[in-house]
Amino acid sequence: MEETGVLDVGSGACIDERQRSIITTGRNKSSIHCSDDSMAGSVSQRACVFCGARVVLNPVTDAIHLVHGPIGCATYTMDIRGSLSSGSELYRNSFSTDLKEKDVVFGGEKKLAACIDEVVTKYHPPAVFVYSTCVVGMIGDDIIAVCKAASARHQIDVIPVESTGFMSGNKVIGYRAAAEALLKLITPKEGETVQMTRKLNFLGEYNLGGEKWLVERYLREIGIEINVAFTGDSTVAALKQAPGACLNIVQCTGSMHWVAQNLERTFGTPYIDVNFFGAENTAESLRKIAEFYEDEEIMRRTEVLIDREMKNIQPAIQKYREKLTGKRAAIYVGGAFKAVAIIRQLQELGMEVVFTGTQTGKQEEYDRIRDMVDEGTVIIDDANPAELEKFLLEKEVDMMAGGVKERVLAFKLGIGFVDHNHDRKECLAGFEGAVRFAREVYITTCSPVWKHLKQTPPCKED
């Protein structure tokens, strides 16, 4: 490590220009570079602006999601969130204008207008989200004008999502594009009013494995109702009632902080950050919500729920802790809120987090991560596979938690792996989810297969 605290990554496995995006914790307090665009030539997971917008909006269950671009863009992001629905399944379909070479030369606005007319006539959705892609930015199609005209024709919300890839090399810009589209949807039209309630909005919850339903059950038990989630298991009609909530709770800060800030500025709705991954995080989040309502009965019910659930899960957590204490772990996930939650969970299991990183973390979030881990831990922003491999081996990692793209790399290196990706179906939230997560960590970390995989095969005689 250099005097600045920045890790020297000038080896063949890493790119020199990435040096300030990787730090090692210690006495020095150098800042990590986390707002730079992904490097050209570096295989990154955060470079697609359109993808960032699609993962936020796709769980709106009864809307049409129309991708204005080549068919590959729609294919790449089809059902990308994998979120569950209690009603409409329209969002499971993937619609595309399928731009061809001719459209690139002569423009695709007429084709887009025709596609909107077709899907509205066939499916009668309450709203259509139209996503722009890199090609659309290149040819200059005016999707705002096309959507405005289509909205007037069909008397529904046809909302442009300005997620053209050439805007940036960072999918966080796509989060912002999705947020702007959501605000257009939920802002009351002239003459419309939204009734104020004592319910809350759950921002940054995508109901991948039923997490929204689980938290809904907890809150209902303590006397609080969810107004709408952004955007897991949501509908267009429910989202339009968002201004009527008395509180916004924010889980995925990367995708929803900007929305929460704008809801507070526009409608006066306060927000608090929560995290329902891990037992301790869940307990703290429930207490924060209960304190906001300043209701003694709600706070009493909250403590009863927490006490009961903690007692139920402690034997299982202790059993896994005995097996996992001292094991070395790595984390590479999309958002910092998830990294923080996993770090805490692994530490509660007695494991040492020696390597961690995210695709979209902010400076203040990396500062918090630094405070949570031990000295010598490698922290990385927007990693590429070569860097992941380098530090997984150097840090002698026993288990990695990450997304689906990291699974194959971990397995090839003989390292256990837990999937915490946005297309999983196992619910890892809440108290029950903490036990499921601990069980998955134990099964993969302590599997006997790894010692056989790492054995050097005996030499064969000629």
UniProtKB/TrEMBL annotation:
<keyword id="KW-0560">Oxidoreductase</keyword>
<dbReference type="InterPro" id="IPR049939">
    <property type="entry name" value="NifE-like"/>
</dbReference>
<dbReference type="InterPro" id="IPR000318">
    <property type="entry name" value="Nase_comp1_CS"/>
</dbReference>
<comment type="function">
    <text>This protein may play a role in the biosynthesis of the prosthetic group of nitrogenase (FeMo cofactor).</text>
</comment>
<protein>
    <recommendedName>
        <fullName>Nitrogenase iron-molybdenum cofactor biosynthesis protein NifE</fullName>
    </recommendedName>
</protein>
<comment type="pathway">
    <text>Cofactor biosynthesis; Fe-Mo cofactor biosynthesis.</text>
</comment>
<dbReference type="InterPro" id="IPR000510">
    <property type="entry name" value="Nase/OxRdtase_comp1"/>
</dbReference>
<dbReference type="Pfam" id="PF00148">
    <property type="entry name" value="Oxidored_nitro"/>
</dbReference>
<dbReference type="GO" id="GO:0016163">
    <property type="term" value="F:nitrogenase activity"/>
</dbReference>
<comment type="similarity">
    <text>Belongs to the NifD/NifK/NifE/NifN family.</text>
</comment>
<dbReference type="InterPro" id="IPR005973">
    <property type="entry name" value="NifE"/>
</dbReference>
<dbReference type="GO" id="GO:0065003">
    <property type="term" value="P:protein-containing complex assembly"/>
</dbReference>
<keyword id="KW-0535">Nitrogen fixation</keyword>
<feature type="domain" description="Nitrogenase/oxidoreductase component 1">
    <location>
        <begin position="48"/>
        <end position="444"/>
    </location>
</feature>
